[in-house]
Design a protein that fits this description.
The chain is α+β, with helices and mostly antiparallel strands and about 600 residues long. The chain is about 40% helix and about 20% strand. It has three domains: about 110 residues, DNA ligase, ATP-dependent, N-terminal domain (DNA ligase i, domain 1), CATH 1.10.3260; about 200 residues, DNA ligase/mRNA capping enzyme (D-amino Acid Aminotransferase, Chain A, domain 1, 2-Layer Sandwich); about 150 residues, Beta Barrel (OB fold (Dihydrolipoamide Acetyltransferase, E2P)). A hairpin with a 4-residue loop joins strand 13 and strand 14. The protein binds adenosine-5'-triphosphate.
């Protein structure tokens, strides 16, 4: 497909806010492409070149480099270009105008295609080391020289990562389902494969090339992270036990970082909850796992927890942040040592174990793990009554944990990759406080501060994620809980995500429009007093309308910033449905 035709699709998608319409535009686009082109196009639609977890280099193009390339291609001076950029406020628009105004100097000899542009971008990314800046600028100049105005616009945006179509992976999967299976209702077939092999391009390729048969053949494998299974939450021990069939395995819920640990060809790789390769942060865990698990190839899951080097007591999650600073790893390993508590085994020596019931997987895990000081299994106990469960919960909190996770041990207790289901239920200490739990919200806007806060933001507009519609819905404005230093840093933290227009996949009412729109990227943990109905927030509006017949959304009252959740991406934020369920539980509590 010609790149200019792809750009027309991008333009159309940019203007579309209705999700169903977006899905059918994507389906049309995919129908017009070859499988190999679809693969490349899906990455470009998400603003990436390949999945993060592959650990390959990013484009590495800064605004200055892009301006240099535009200058070389158009013959305009950098001062003129900077002026134009100021006027338009968007590099894409600036590039488009340059291409219109002053025809780019070279004669266009070859038309750009989706594949040729993608391949050039790969070359830009792969140029690393000394002299690489110049190589990148030269390739980019070549692209601009061959670009029509609309192509220049999207090339500039793609290389600077500002495409911002508001499309997430699930919308692409819907588009693929509609294109190749005739209906988006077939998304689960594609999603199941994607959960085991989260490479959107590869999944798109197989869908287009081999259909359902090909997708069903996709298996989990070491080296490729599996999308993690997640827990539902409840606050009543009896209800928890009823949900899992009266008997379950309760485990400590450690307050650390989730780690999916893979071994292949003698090497250990660690992936985070967001599927990022975090091996470099934990050389100690890597070594400890090699010693503790003898098998040739495996995927196990556990929680990495920071421990006090003097007392061996568990330390809170925040202390793991010291591991995020690359240059200090050796020191961090001494000052903030870790232990890993394993709880699952998803693959062993050539065999995928996702469909085996949990007790079987845990038995396999036990059989391959030699317990050492730094590699242990999660503390676990079979519970059969609410009293058992309460007692175990108290013990967990006493031992420095957040609470417990109650896991189904029935024969259907498979590992549900990528899903938040009732086979795992978390019961956290915070449930005892007024609001059931902290929630993780994504920042979508900011309000300017006044008085002592002038010059920075006074409050952040936060949203939940609604995966059914692939949109973000506002739920509160958070202005308290920040230290002075954190407050001062807010504009800097959000600068890369500030956008002139409302993010396309955000539902917001007029009354809540912020001073500054922020593209959904950064997630923060928030605690509030309670959840209430709200005339101005959009979270759960459809659910409230359907079940209570009221025109209202849900809001968190008196929200307070607790922490950044850098381990979560925007679609990992607490979902609208979860907030709705918390609201229902709260109502139930008031009634009893
Ligand atoms: P939270 O913010 O409460 O950690 P989450 O959205 O990250 O929630 P959930 O699925 O809701 O994830 O809760 C399960 C999380 O608890 C896992 O992602 C994992 O990091 C952590 N965890 C700690 N101990 C265990 C355990 N024994 N079994 C499974 N997960 C555990």
């Amino acid at each position: 497909m010609l790149f200019k035709d792809f750009c027309e699709y991008l333009k159309l998608l940019e203007k579309t806010t209705e999700r169903l319409r977006m899905v059918s535009i994507l389906a049309n686009l995919f129908r017009e492409m070859s499988p190999e082109e679809i693969q490349k196009a899906t990455y470009l639609l998400l603003g990436e070149l390949y999945p993060d977890w592959m650990g390959l280099p990013e484009l590495g193009v800064a605004e200055k480099m892009c301006l240099e390339a535009l200058s070389r291609a158009s013959g305009l001076s950098k001062t003129e270009l900077e002026k134009l950029l100021k006027q338009t406020g968007d590099i894409g628009e600036a590039a488009e105008r340059i291409a219109q105004r002053k025809k780019l100097t070279a004669l266009i000899t070859q038309q750009l295609t989706v594949s040729s542009v993608y391949d050039s971008l790969i070359k830009i990314a792969m140029a690393t080391g000394p002299g690489s800046q110049d190589v990148k600028i030269r390739i980019l100049t070549g692209l601009f020289l061959s670009a029509s105005p609309i192509e220049a616009r999207y090339i500039a945006r793609i290389v600077l990562g500002t495409t911002r179509l508001g499309i997430q992976e699930m919308t692409i999967l819907d588009g693929l389902a509609q294109a190749f299976f005739g209906t988006k209702e077939k998304r689960p077939v594609i999603e199941e494969a994607f959960n085991k092999y989260p490479d959107i391009g590869y999944i798109a390729l197989i869908t287009a090339k081999e259909g359902e048969g090909g997708l069903r053949k996709i298996k989990a494998q070491p080296g490729v992270p599996i999308r993690p299974m997640l827990a539902e939450r409840l606050s009543d021990p009896k209800e928890i036990l009823d949900k899992v069939g009266g008997e379950a395995l309760a485990e400590y819920k450690y307050d650390g970082e989730r780690a999916q640990i893979h071994k292949k060809n003698g090497k250990v790789v660690i992936f985070s909850r967001r599927l990022e390769n975090i091996t470099e942060q934990y050389p100690d865990v890597q070594k400890a796992i090699l010693e503790a698990i003898q098998a040739d190839s495996f995927i196990v899951e556990g929680e990495i927890v920071c421990v006090d080097p003097d007392t061996d007591e568990l330390r809170p999650f925040q202390e793991l942040m010291h591991r995020k600073r690359k240059y200090d790893i050796v020191r961090a390993m001494q000052e903030y040592p870790t232990k890993v508590f394993l709880f699952d085994c998803l693959f062993l020596d050539g065999q995928e174990l996702l469909d085996k019931p949990y007790p079987e997987r845990r038995k396999i895990l036990e059989s391959i793990t030699k317990i050492t000081d730094s590699v242990q299994l999660t503390k676990a106990k079979i519970v059969k009554s609410p009293a058992d469960l309460e007692e175990f919960m108290m013990q967990a909190v006493e031992d420095g944990c957040e609470g417990i996770i109650v896991k189904s041990i029935r024969s259907d207790a498979v590992y549900e990759a990528g899903a938040r289901g009732w086979r795992w239920i978390k019961y956290k200490r915070d449930y005892k406080s007024e609001m059931i739990d902290t929630i993780d919200l994504v920042v979508v806007g900011a309000f300017y501060g006044k008085g002592r806060r002038s010059g920075t933001y006074g409050a952040l507009l936060c949203a939940s994620y609604n995966p059914e519609q692939d949109v973000f819905e506002t739920v509160c404005k958070v202005g308290s809980g920040f230290t002075d230093t954190q407050l001062a840093e807010l504009p800097k933290i959000f600068a890369p995500y500030v956008t002139k227009q409302k993010p396309p996949n955000l539902h917001v009412s007029e009354a809540m429009e912020p001073d500054v729109w922020i593209y959904p990227r950064i997630v923060m943990e928030v605690l509030g007093a309670e959840i209430t109905l709200s005339p101005v927030h959009t979270c759960g509006k459809d659910l409230i309308k359907k079940n209570f017949n009221k025109e209202a959304g849900l809001a968190v009252r008196f929200p307070r910033f607790i922490n950044w959740r850098l381990d979560k991406g925007p679609t990992d934020a607490t979902t609208t449905k979860e907030i709705y369920e918390m609201y229902l539980q709260q109502l139930k509590k008031v009634q009893t």
